[in-house]
Structure formats: structure tokens, C-alpha cells
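step=predict obj=Helix-turn-helix transcriptional regulator n=925
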Amino acid sequence: MAEQGPTTLWGRSGERRRLDDALAAVRRGESAVLVVRGEAGVGKTALLQYAAGQATDCRVARIAGVESELELPFAALHQLCAPMLGGLAALPEPQEHALQVTFGLASGDVPDRFLVGLAVLSLLAEEAAKQPLVCLVDDTQWLDQATRQVLGIVARRLLAESVLLLFGVRETDDERLLPGLSELTLQGLEAEDARLLLAAAVTGPVDDRVGDRLVAETGGNPLALLELVKGTSEAELAGGFAIPSTASSVPDQLHDRYLQRVRALPEPARRLLLLAAADPTGDPALLWRAAQILGVGRDAVGSGEVRQLLEVGSAVRFRHPLMRAAAYAAGSSEDRRAAHLAVATATDAKTDPDRRAWHFATAATAPDEDLATELERSAERAHARAGLAGCAAFLERSVALTPEAERRTDRALAAAHAHLHAGTLEAGLGLLAVAEADAVTDLQRARVEQLRGEISRASTSGSQAPVLLLQAARRLETLEPRLARETYLDAWGAALVAGHLAAPGGTLRDVSAAARPASSASGPVEPGDLLLDGLATVILEGPESAEPSLRQAVDAFVGDQLPGEHWLHWGTLASNAALALWDVDCWDRVSARHVELARTSGALAPLAAALNVRRVVAIWCGDFETAITLGLEEQVVKEVTGARRASYGGLFLAAYQGQPDQATPLITATADEALVRGEGLGQQIADRATALLQIGLGHYAEGMAAADRAATGNFGPFTWQALPDLVEAATRAGQPDVAADAMRRLQAATAITGSDWAVGLEARSRALLAEGEAAEQAYAEALERLGRTPLRPELARARLLYGEWLRREGRRVDARDYLHAAFDAFSALGAEAFAERARRELLATGEKVRKRRPDTLHDLTPQEDHIARLARDGRTNPEIAAELYISTRTVEWHLRKVFGKLGIRSRKELRGALPAGRRYGHGAG
């Protein structure tokens, strides 16, 4: 009986209905994604094959992950897309070029990982426009990381493309792949269905006790049942004699069964199966060239037993992934090396040099410097196509082939560094262990400490990272002063995030005190030195003393005087430096550039942090629309990389929107998670968000308590940002002493030359504590200064406070103008609590103002609203698709829904249906 016959789907009626429904959706012009999870043999592959069998009116594309190519970047993605590359010309030029570079068809800079994802999405959409498309991805756990990331992006962007994307995943103990997608978890068959399957697979009688035992031993795993039956005689099945099982698990039992079958084959057949297992491309021409090298003829595939395991036609395909694994395991280590050597020899050195080097490396029996060097060259090419993840994979392979210890350590360190920025932190730690064991020089040992601290920081944002990095920096001072200063800068960033949760000796003041002497060491002064000096001085002496160094450092970043590697390391710190200068324009420019470079390099771990900062900039500038869109992208990056750091932009957005039922649980959960991760800054941001929420609601005592917590400790500019809220909440709560103390601290924090932001907030806060003409002059100064900035919420808050003061002074007519301006601004922003606070003040002046009633605009989802506004502003559908990482067809689908909700028929009517909004700064990032 064939392994994937109908009996393997026995009892899976519910699962088949899920697939039938998904196929029906695709035929209706929608998209569907389903992750099928389960242990080996439980029926994942059978369900994927069922879907292929039902999709007779669809185009079916299949790939499967292969363990031997787990680290070869974009290997599986190329297999999926290769038959569709004839449609590349239909893609927008940037997407076409991104795929050409990714697949080695053209040269160029490393493409943005999200642009590659959009290009694949567009390619699938183009194919699906001709005929509904079903993509089957089996053994997802063995896909190379780059492919898995891109397909994860595609899966989260599919909507209206007539594409079904099915993943089969055998879960590992320590990682849950593709989280957040619709899923179907397969368990063993129910006992009754398992017994029926057993009966259907056996021609003779089965003793009830034997049948029950087989069902219990396999847990109802259908493939295991069928394989066990094959190894059990009719007499044993009918006689009730128990046969002990020696396998520890169902996958082990299945693997052993297939091993027995492969090892029972003639030697030429075993060699052919091993070659097919070693080469996952499925290219029959390559298989036969490699077979000829090993002296295996085409007749080796002729036996029925071989055909039950392997299909050789227009493509080479095993009938089940476990069969591939068994075919590979059945060979000795010598046999496997011979197979890889034959595949490498048969691979064209010009068209596929990297895969050729990969197979030669797998066939190597001893360290080989020439081959290790070739893998280094492949790493450079992979970096150009696949970014840091691809580079890390080849460097890691080259480490094992490097004969000389010092060179091996350098390569291990380089690979660990690439894994760090690619977000594959466990792999980075493994390479650090290699580097530590082989390190020859003190510098190499210090670099191990440095990278271990950086990985600790990236993985947990934890309390230990500042101490680890500080120790490494001190050790590096006499060995490599430049690297020492860079490490001090990393330690400063880690200490900022850890905050009051930092381990002893790792506080921000500790790091700043240790770093100051290093920042002024002899030698040419670089922007990183200025950044380190400025940030350390901010903590030790305050912003006024730090201003010269910070200004020069920020100007260097704004002027793009640093290499991309420095941006990835310190882009967030450069944004913090601009924040310390109260320079909103530079804050905007630096954060936008950081996002751009992180995207371009494919460095997803830094991209998550860059998007987090960019969202905060958008919110402070009143562009909630962009903040929502950036949040969607940030969430995708976190899902793809597994990053867990809190989204500060999400907290501030929820606080400004002023809906406590939604905001409070989010803020509480973020604070709790930050405590677990040792992320003191996350707790401080949660307190600031709480203060903002409560002040908007008019709950001033609660707002004062939260703002007081946020203003406690030394988080540099993050602490200062809480002080205006503390002044406002304390004055309204009747706590003038608290407000006066916060005001003194704010005046010291805003002693920055030429900042309208700093002067405006200082004046607004000073007005709250003043009386009479002094208060009015301070309010006028605040309105003038903040009016020169893009900080729309801060300006609206100044108008609200001034209007409240005028009303209390009995000047109700004057108050109405400012209160109306505040109400309109907050309403346009979507800051509902602040808008309601302004409305109540207007009522107190005798002005009749109704609450803004929800209209049809509130029926639009954030994605629909953003797409509608982009269309209103003249963007074409392809332009919108490129900006939002969705397909053109999804844009069209969203616009049809928008038109229906707004009661309009065309894009021309959007201008009247949607209020004009002002976008801030230098783009959405």
C-alpha cells in the first residue's frame, strides 16, 4: 500500500473541510493561509497532498525544507519562485530588481527584506491573476531562515490575491514557527478511527488486543500504524501475541521502518536515494549527472520498492519527508560525503557557485583553508543577496573548515556578529562558544565578552547586559581602544534600557562614569566618540554641559557621515541624543534614516527597535495615522524575528487615544513583561503612558502619581519628558510643592540653545505655576514656540491649558477661541480624552458643543483609513502597495470596501469624504 493513499486521511473529515473552505475562498478571489502542525507521520503531508488533489483548477507550487540546506539563504524560496520568474517583468522595477539580486540574477545592494517579501507577494499575485495559486510548503522547520522570514511576511500580507499558502510544520521543543497565523494542529486519530484504519490496511483478521496495543503505542498516528502493520506478520496480528516496541517515539519508529526499507535495497538504489536526499533542488538532470559520477545507472529507480519512496519525473520528489531523512541516514558518513562530492562536482560553478561550495564543504573530511576561503567569498555574495542572515550561514560553515585557530576564531566572531544583527541569537551564542574555545589572543577573548554582552542585550534587554558589556569595554581599553569606546556606547544603551533593574555596577551612572575617560582618549575624534561623550555627560552633568558633543554627534548622523554598520549599532542612541537636545527636526531625520538603513540591510533585529522609535516620533508630531501603519510593520518584524521588547509607540498611541478600557490592560501587561525582562525603561514608559492617559481623562491625582514615578531615576531625556506632565498633574491635583520641584528640574533639563520644543514646554509649565500677567506671557510664549514645531499634540495641550486659565480668569469669550482650537485639534488627531476635556471646558464657558458622533470614518479599519488617505492624496495603487507592503490587488480590495463604507464611487470623491490631514517630517519611515 502506498504511504500517502486515502487511508492516511482516515478520520480527518474536519481537517479536510478546513482545506476545502480555504480552497473555496481562493476560488472566490480571496487569500487563505493555514499552518498545519503536528508530529512526524500524523498526516501533515497527506493533508497538503489532499489540498493539491482538490486544487485541480488551480496552479500548484510545492517546496519542502531540507535539513542539509537549513542555513543556505533563500534556497527554498528560489525553488518556489523559479517556475514563476517569467512574470518578473510585470512587477514594479524595485521589486523586480530585488528578486533578481536575491536569486543571483543581477548584482546590486542587498535588498530590503520587506521589499523581497513584497516582490514575492506581487509575483504570487501575478500568477494567481491567471489561475488561482496553491503553494504547499512542507517541513517548514527545515526551511532556511531567510526563506522562512520572507514567507512569514508574505503570509501576513495576503488578503485578496487568490492564493492559498499551506505550511506543514513539525514543531521543535524550543521554537514555535509562524506564530499568529491561522493554524490547524493535528493529533493522532481517535481510537475508533485508528482501528478502522488498521482494519482497512490489513487483509486478514486483527486480534482486538493486538489492535488496541498498536493504536496505543502509536498514539493514533496514521503513518506509524501503517508502517507497523507492514512489519507484523498475519499470525502475530491475528494471534494476540504482543511485540515489544523498542522505539522511544512515533517519529523514531517511522524513521527506523524507513531505514530498514532503504537498507534492504540494492546498493545502486541506495546510492540513488542518497543522492536525491543530498540535493534538495529536485533537478533530475543534476541527479543523473551526479549518479553518473558514482556509477549509478537509470535502472536503479526501476524497482517498485524504490518507486514507493521516490518519484523521478519532471522533478525529483520523495513521497514523504521522513523518507528523505531515512534515505540520507541510511548511508554511512563516507557514503554521504561521496554523495555531496558528486553533487558538488555535477553543479555548474558559474551558475551556482555558492551551492557548489556548500556541497564541497559538506563533503570535506578535514579542515581546508582554500574551501573555507571560498565559503567566505560565498558569504560576501550571500550578504549582497540575503543580508546578514545569508552571510552568517556561510561564515558559520567556513569556521569548521578553518585549520588555524586564530583565523577560525576571527571567522567565528564575524559569524556571531552577523547572527546578532540578523536576529538569530542562539546561533550567535553557539559560535561564541567556538570562538571562546579557540581564542588565541587577549583581543579575541575580549571580543567574545563584548559580543556575549550584545547578544544578552538583544535577547532579553536584561539586567546583566550592561555589566557584561562594561567588563568587555574595560578589557578592550588597552587592547583595542576604538572597539572599547564602541563597546562603552553599547553598554550605555544597555544600561538605559535596564534602568533601575540593572545589576549592581551596571547602572547608567556607573557606565557613564566609566565611559567618559574613554570617550576623550587620544586619537582622531569620530562621531561615535562624540556620541559617547555627550550621552555620558548628559547623565553625569546635565544637558547644558553635554550640548556641544551631542550637537556634533547628531549633525554627523543627520549629515550621513557614518557607515551603515554604525547606524545599525547606534541609530537608536543617535535618536536619543536628538531627544536630549530637544531637536524635533533631527529626531525626525535620524529616526527616518535609521529605519531606512535597517530595512535596506535586512537587519531585522535593529529594524524592530528603529520602528519603535519612529512610531514615537510620529505620535509626538500628531501623525497617529502613520503611527498605526508603522505599528503594523513593527508587529510583523517582531513576529518574524521573535523579538519581545515592548512597543513604546503603541503605549503612547493608546494613551493619547484616551480609551482606558483598551489602554490600561495594554500598559499593565507591558509593565509586567518589562519587569520579567529586566527592562526598567519599559516600566518608565508605561508610567509615562499612564500619566498621559489620566491627565487626558482629567484624573489628575492618578496622573501625578504615574508621572512622579516616570520622573524618578535617571533615564536622561526620557526622565525629562515626564516632567511637564508632572507639573500639569500636580498643579491640577492641588500639589504646588510637587509641581514647583518638577519645574526646577524641567528648567535645568531644557537649558538647551535654540530649541522651540524645550522653551515651549518650559513656558507652558511655568505658566501653570504663575499668576496674572506673568502667566499670560508664559502661555503666549509657549504657543509661539510650540507653534513653530510639528508637535501638534503639545501645541493643542498648550491651547487647552491657556483656554482653561482664561476661563478661570473670567475671560470666557477669549477662552472659547483657544478651547475651540484645542477641541478641533484633538478631535482631528483622534485624542478622544483630551478632546472631551476641551469640550467640557467649552460648556463651562457657556458654549454649546456636542460630542463628536462616530461617523462612517470610524467604521474604517486602520489599514482602510490609511489606504484611503493615501489614495486621496494622489498615490497610485502600486505606490500604496509598495509603501504598505501589500499587493496591488489588496489595495483595490480595500478601496472597494472604503467606497462602500463612505458611500462614494470613485477616488475623486475621497477628498470630500475624508478630512485633509497633515503628515509630518520626512516620510513615514
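step=describe
DSSP finds 46 helices and seven strands in the chain.
step=end
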